[in-house]
Write a structure and sequence with these properties.
Number of helices: 15
Number of strands: 19
CATH topology of the largest domain: BirA Bifunctional Protein, domain 2
CATH superfamily of the largest domain: Bira Bifunctional Protein, Domain 2
Helix content: 25-40%
CATH class of the largest domain: Alpha Beta
Amino acid sequence: MGREEQIIGERLRKIDELRKSGVNPYPHNFDKKNSIGECLKAKMGAKVKTAGRLMNNRDLGKISFSRLRDSSGEIQIVFQDGESPKKSFDLFKKYIDAGDFAGVSGKIFKTKTKETSILVEDVELLSKSTLPLPAKWQGLQDKEERYRKRYLDLIMNPGVKEVFDKREKIFSAIREFLVKDGFHEVETPYIQTIYGGASAKPFKTHLNALDVDLFLSISPELYLKRLIVGGYEKVFTIARNFRNEGIDRWHNPEFTMMEIYQAYADYNDMMNLFENLYEFVAKKVNGTTKIEYRGKTIDFKAPWKRMTMAAAIKKWAEIDVEKMSEKELLSFMEKNHVAKDGDSWGWHVQSIFEHFCEDKIEQPTHIIDHPLETTPLCKMHRKDKLCRLIERFEPFCMGAELGNCYSELNDPVIQRKLLEEQQRALSGGNEEANPHDEDFINAIEQGMPPTGGLGMGIDRMVMLLTEQESIRDVILFPFMKPEGHLSRTPTSTYTPPSLKEEKKK
């Protein structure tokens, strides 16, 4: 029998003994009057009653210590022979282990080392843990195990909760900024008969009640545009998106993004909105627009740098794509081993940018004026006489795309033509093409005002503002490859009365 199995057996034995003596190791409630944060601020000699998880126990004979932790902090609790009642002291020494939840009552005092502590007068076991915590000196270091068992990660690595507390503040700051600017927060469906709004392969599901196949949302865009048609002028949603794509430090199949649409605006207005929102949130959450990320000082203060995609390629790939033909671009790509995204001048430009430029962009920068082929939902560039560019920009920082924004296409004739082309591409095997959505076309045919649209990766914003390396560090339960679980053979002889009755039946 291994060490862990011995510990489990010992704890189950304690549960049996407690129940036989009339003590319920899993009571229904506890009258917690003080948080640990309040206990730490209380005056010396004050009476307190609090509860939390015991992190480690030290028995020194006539005196015993433990660390009690709740969501507000951690405090030392002390059992002293002659000061703590014998019944409480005995219960702690015999039956309560690190990892258990306990409620304590006592007085605030300071130890000889000046540490604020609780001298325990009464203790109640609130939940007996049967599995031991990871060894303190070893902790929970394996990242895969941390993501898979987030509950243990939160217990053993208190700094993890600070990241998610800050994530919550980021969401609040975003909403504060937008609501103050007159935006309405709305909801869009996650389960859809027709997906769209992004170039992505969807997850497919099935509705048994109607015997129809459905899709999980890859973007809320087409629904939000319907609301602009319906009379809303400023809308946003913070939504879960589901994309059947690769998994890496920037990508998770299920992620959070925000989309914003504003009537009578264009992509220039959206650039201003994007960078002002980032600046506001950074100041609100961190107190500064600057962060340290991978050894670099990044400043989100507006205005951000603006650079055309062609200018970025000229800087880092040292070619002028605006003066090159499709054939010349393809020859350059083959020579430099650039993977193709598609077969056209625009797709070659996009491929060259991704290969040579993305990872070079460190400071917040708007990459503007993208090739026409890259989206079917954006207006043509008003100044491009060759009709090869659209009014689209993507903000980048530290090699990562932070968003995707357009002057939205509102010409129903062109929109229908482009989505029909996308449908043919989808039918021809392009799994990331947009399907034709006739109801969306009908909505545009009713008339949609000039509109600026903005999509923002919220998880990536959280990564940067909390200085985390992976998207899995800012999602409480990131997707993990399924893992087999070994079942343990129970070693407790105790059977609850309800189960005894069930066995008799």
